[in-house]
ATP-binding protein
Amino acid sequence: MDIERTYDASAEREDASATPRDGRPLHRAVPPARSSARSSARSSAGSPHPAAVPPRPSAPPPSVPPAPAAPPREDAPDPDGPPPGAPFLAWLRTPRPEAAPGVWAFAHRPRPAEEPVRVPARQLLGGALIALLSCWLLWSLLWNSFLGGLWMWPLFNFTAESWRSGMTFVVLSYGYYALTAAVLLFFFGRLGRWPEVWRRWGAPLVRRLWDDGGEPPPVAPAPREDPAEWPRLRAAGAHDAADRLAADARAGLMNDVDHARIDRAWQAATARPDRLAAFTDTVLRHGAAACPHPSGARDLAVRTARHDLLARQVRIGTAADDRRNPWAHRGTGCALGPGLLGTSLLAVGPPGSGKTERLVRPVLESLCLQALAGRAAVVAVGAAGADLAPDAAFDVVVKIGRPGSEYDLDLYGGTDDPDEAAGVLAEGLVGDLAGTRPEADGRRAATALAQLLGPYRAAHGRFPSVPELRELLDGAPRALGALRAVLTAGGQDGLLRELDARERQTGRPGDVAPLLADRLALLDRPAFAGFFDTAHPGRTFSLRTLEHPLRVRVDLPERGHAEASRMLARLVLAQFTECAAGRADRSLFACLVLDDATSAVTAESVRGLQRLRSAHAGALLTLRTLDDVPEALRGPLLGSVGCRMALSGVTTWDGALFAEVWGKEWVETRDVTDRQVVAHDPFSRSVHVLRRLISGRAVTAQSVTVRTVERERWSASELAHSVPPGHAVLSVTSVGGAAAPPVLVDLCR
């Protein structure tokens, strides 16, 4: 199609700017250096994607942007200040240790898997004070000889008679006193847990008193290990290119997107050795601006979340310090990336719980950054006015039902196969009615559509538009007669038999064509008159372009077309699962972000979600409640996704399904029982009576029973009533199979 031809043509004009084929992804954590590179990216972020969509008439042909000059400054630079590239280099050199799935790896400090035994503060301070007083008392008794002179026996026994006069003996004596005091301090310190008192209160107090509040800058690694020196390029012999990139990084001309994009291009060049020379030449000419995204953008105009393109993560919150969270996760950052989104994510929460603002927007922003780095393709679908991201952050914005939309949506998914087009279109039209109406069977609907789409394409070289297809489904004699005449003139006997079979079914009981025509009538409205036009494919967007690093947003119709919006969302989901799994090149991570998947989940879409993991693709779906999904599909839907999120405010019915899918775990419980102590001798009885008069309670003794029982990780009642506002319970599973338990996440931090 035209979109693909335009992309390929622009890619051929660039030196070594093709998309690498290894499929490895990256991310970012802190804002890069504010250089002219970002200014250049912001100025170009609003332009349409020249390589992924048909260029506008006034748009110039894409070209490699020149290396940005130094940013203008009103004042002279401070010679004593940090160098321009210091923030970017500090971000690049920050360690990212291995962490559990869903943990923010940037500067992560692993915690022990189990919570250490923590003594209560009152007991700890009391024991430390008693140990200190005991140590002081014992030393006083020894020093004043109240315990005799036995403790001095080692000093006199191991010193010669000639040393017992003069300064030598005095020095030895005070050394012995110091050694004895150190032994006493060590013994009573261990007994009173003084080191733990220091770690819990002393060290933080000293840090607050003496620390300036800033963390020391990370120590720069050796040149051969410094990522800012591009060691992989140097190992391959591209020293000149590595020197140019390192110089741009130090000068503040490189940001995290540039680093990820060039690293991706280098991986592609190493996969095809004949392109190494072209890659090196491009880097030497353009530096940090080399191998650009076809749109020319090098950053997003606005960032609202913390990203780490080096670890391919976006931070969405912090694990709460809650007893229900595993000790190793408490206080750690929570993040998502392609490694987790590749198993798909389902988020359920009522309106106002933060699904769009605190989950969809950060994830979508991260995927757009990865697309600029040549590592991902993203399609965002939401209602008009949902404000998922500004128009400047996308290459293609399809505004269905709005006259000002530059792009259109292909109802047939960009395929030339009538059977494939019929299957996808049938899923979009009647997929939600499967099992509720006898004639709404997906296979019967696909067969009926294929009997019309195949002959029409053979006769006209294209698929029918919405009014034309509706007319054929209604069985209009004029439309069927005209199609038959063209097929007869062309000698298409096989397709004539398809058309005859369709005509024989027309009007019979159980015929699915009237239902398809009624559903298609929702799109045959004046508001959609300029859309879904197959006669002019120049402005039509198709999901077949997922092999390119595209950023696409599809705005569903506004109020008054709710049923049409749900039908189009279902159609886009069906097209995405079909096109993502059918890609020849799966090196890019493809992701569909569907804000509000109400009525979009069908039996076929659930099977499609399961196929995405092996196709290097995933989907993020949000729901107000699981009641928006047919009851028979709620369990399979939760089982088909690897990441699940229950936000605050879910109902107990929804919570019961999450609790069931998260399962149970073995926990240790302590049951404390108070029993009254019965005294038998007169003295003990009198003491008990006195204690009862003073305290008002009988004398009791406690018995503790420790048991290991199996309990739900999160019960339905806890999910419905114990998740604070702005929080969510999140469980994740990586593409490799590693899983993390459900964790209570503060989405506001």
Observations:
- The CA atoms of residues 73 and 644 lie 48 Å apart.
- The longest strand covers residues 664-676.
- Confidence is low (pLDDT under 50) at residues 1-77.
- The chain is about 40% helix and 15% strand.
